[in-house]
Design a protein that fits this description.
By secondary structure, this protein is α/β, with parallel strands linked by helices. It has a domain of 182 residues: Nucleoside phosphorylase domain (Rossmann fold, 3-Layer(aba) Sandwich). The chain is built from 5 helices and 11 strands, in the order E-E-E-E-H-E-E-E-H-E-E-H-E-H-E-H. Strands 1, 2, 3, 4, 5, 6, 7, 8, 9, 10 and 11 form an 11-stranded mixed beta sheet that branches. Helix 1 packs across helix 4 and helix 2 packs across helix 5. The chain binds zinc ion. The site of zinc ion has 7 residues, from helix 2. Pathway: Purine metabolism; purine nucleoside salvage. It catalyses: a purine D-ribonucleoside + phosphate = a purine nucleobase + alpha-D-ribose 1-phosphate.
Length: 277
């Protein structure tokens, strides 16, 4: 079986130029992931890249098989995951090009399978215990500080902390929704950060979100509202910079075996009842 220690869930812009990338198809009990895993070495680390929306960007946020994606990464050995994503800014000061490393998350999704512990009978017919995962701090504190340092090292002053609200999509927010999110004190809005983060936690993976602001959300601007063209333009302008930061972060993540962060203790005292890959 192929082996990697660090996973990156993001667009093809993050791996397409790497040399000696091997493509690995992984089956999971939850069906196929968004695409093959692309495994390669980066700064001496074995990394598995997974295009979140598929290689041709054909899987919309609400149709992504998040369970299969995280399961596939873990099954090739990944224990630390970096999740770059595009978001809308909910405050005027978080304009396009802002990089925010959130420390909190609000789930406003509606239709997504968001747990591995859903009480389904196991292959042997037994029914697993109920499991409640500790999720007060949804992101890995070690991964967050590594990502922040990597951004500063590339002279990109990141926003340290903030709340990402995740909406169902694929439509953007109405002005009223956006103003409500901003009034609640939340920082950015995205469509993929959940259940990616919680599924990583359920599998004992360290997960770090790196949110690139591509637009001001409807309630924080005065124009026509968010357009897809605008999002793509800003993402294109910043993807090279984000890739550098991401690769520096990969190099700086601690060795897998030295992890002792809260991510590894989410289920202390619980009998999970399922066999993790
Ligand atoms: Zn961690």
């Amino acid at each position: 079986m192929a082996n990697a220690e660090i996973g990156v869930i993001g667009g093809s812009g993050f791996y397409s130029f790497l040399e000696d990338v091997s493509e690995v198809q992984v089956e999971t009990p939850y069906g196929p992931p968004s695409d093959s895993l692309y495994l390669g070495e980066l700064a001496g680390r074995q990394v598995a890249f997974l295009p979140r929306h598929g290689r041709s960007h054909t899987v919309p946020p609400h149709k992504i098989n998040y369970r299969a994606n995280l399961w596939a990464l873990r099954s090739v050995g990944v224990r630390q995951v970096l999740g770059p994503c595009a978001v809308g800014g909910l405050r005027a000061e978080y304009g396009p090009g802002t990089l925010l490393v959130p420390d909190q998350l609000v789930d406003r999704t509606k239709s997504r399978a968001q747990t591995y512990f859903d009480g389904e009978p196991l292959p042997d017919g037994s029914v697993p215990n109920v499991v409640h995962t500790t999720f007060a701090d949804p992101y890995c504190p070690v991964g967050r500080s590594v990502a922040l340092a990597a951004a500063r090292g590339r002279e990109w002053e990141p926003v340290d902390g903030g709340t990402m609200v995740v909406i169902e999509g694929p439509r953007f927010s109405t002005r009223a929704e956006s103003q409500w999110h901003a009034a609640a004190g939340w920082s950015v809005v995205g469509m993929t950060g959940h259940p990616e983060a919680v599924l990583a936690r359920e599998l004992g993976l360290c997960y770090t979100s790196m949110a690139l602001v591509t637009d001001l959300d409807a309630g924080a601007e005065t124009g026509e509202g968010v357009s897809h063209t605008e999002v793509l333009k800003v993402f294109g302008e910043n993807v090279g910079r984000l890739r550098e930061v991401l690769f520096d972060a990969v190099a700086a993540l601690p060795p897998t075996e030295s992890r002792s962060c809260l991510c590894t203790h989410a289920h202390d005292g619980w009998d999970l009842g399922i066999e993790l890959p």
